Amino acid sequence: MKAVVQVVKKACLSVDGQVVSKIGKGLVVFFCVEKGDDEEKMRYIIKKLAGLRIFADENGKTNLSVKEVNGEILFVSQFTLAGDCERGFRPSFFCAEEPEKAKAMYEKAGNMLSSEVGKPVKFGVFGADMQIEQTNDGPFTILLQK
Prior knowledge:
The chain is an alpha/beta fold. It has one domain: D-tyrosyl-trna(Tyr) Deacylase, Chain: A. It has two helices and eight strands.
């Protein structure tokens, strides 16, 4: 299981030219389920996402979580994080979980994250061709993996 976490000032996700989700200050989380991932890994990633102290406090020190700054979260499924580029130049996605199981885990993880932070998480559209516009803050990007 992998998650790429980016601190943003704002983000907007569209499908077929229609805005699906939009957030202000907060996190964009690109989430990937790989073969063999289970609930234990999911709980670990979700707890980390909710608690990451990557927002600046009043002294400019990265010391606050998304919950503490009342930030929003855009949670996007991204199987391409499972891409293996070890051989050749075309990534292999053999490690990515089958779509049905990945979708169920993505939705469950997003709902768990919503409960952890105490506010609704905005979702992407699983399997869709999504366009995402975001204004990164920092930039500040973290890779979580379990």
